[in-house]
Structures are given as structure tokens and as C-alpha cells.
TrEMBL record:
E.C. designation(s): 3.1.-.-
Classification via InterPro entries: RNaseH-like_sf, YqgF, YqgF/RNaseH-like_dom, YqgF/RNaseH-like_dom_sf
A GO molecular-function descriptor: nuclease activity
Domain spans labelled YqgF/RNase H-like: 9-107
Protein name: Putative pre-16S rRNA nuclease
GO process annotations (BP): rRNA 5'-end processing
Keywords: Cytoplasm, Hydrolase, Nuclease, Ribosome biogenesis
Lineage, top ranks: Bacteria, Pseudomonadati, Bacteroidota, Flavobacteriia, Flavobacteriales
PANTHER family: POLYNUCLEOTIDYL TRANSFERASE, RIBONUCLEASE H-LIKE SUPERFAMILY PROTEIN
Amino acid sequence: MTIFAAYMGRLLAIDYGTKRTGIAVTDELQIIASGLTTVDTSSLVAFLKDYISKETVDKIIIGLPKQMDNAASESEVYIQKFLIKLEKEIPEIPVERVDERFTSKMAFQTMIDSGLSKKQRRNKALVDEISATLILQSYMAAQ
């Protein structure tokens, strides 16, 4: 008996920030979400184009920041501008949004639970990368 797994591309998640952006990806079978890196937001599109030139990406998942009353957060204005640029620069990859409420708090708690020191927990880039991973896990769990 032969088991055939259709080749799929990765899912890539973005925790968008005005200064830094956390990025997470799945494996090719879209089973495991892992933090990839944090990049300066000013070079985000260039980073994504380079990554996509080397890896197959089926979908980009971007956090949707909301306030407790379900209203859009202030950062949504910047994300909308980024989405327009992304659609123009990388139109071939579909984009989906995922509610990202609590991901920063959950990322910080994850860092505490995994035994990281206070100094390591102050690493905002690591928080952004973990937040992107949580956004990706949330998307995968909903599918």
C-alpha cells in the first residue's frame, strides 16, 4: 500500500507591527506552526518576496487586531495600507485574517511557561514571533 500526500505549500502568518513584524510558517504538510523570524516592518514586503521565491506558500494569514468591544484597533489602519501593498506586490497568494486578540498576552505567558528569563521575555521581537505562531495555530485550529 502506498501512501500519497499531495504536496502543499506552507501557510505563513504575520503579526503586523508598525516597527517590527513577527512571522511564523507551517511545514509543507501544514501540520506544525513554528516561529520563523521577526523583520523590520519597513523591509517586510522585500522579505516576503524573497521567502516566497524559495518556498511555496499557499496562503498568508494576517492578524486582525480588535478591541474587546469588537471594534477595529488603531493599528488596523496601518494593516489596511500594508494589505493594499501586499495585493499589489504579491497578488498570487491569497490572504486571510484571524482575530488576534490576546495573542501578545498569550505569547508572554508562553515565554513564562517555557522558563525564559526576564531578560529574554523583554525581547519584543521574540514576543512578535510567538504571537505570529499563535495566530497561525488559531487559523489552523479553525480549519
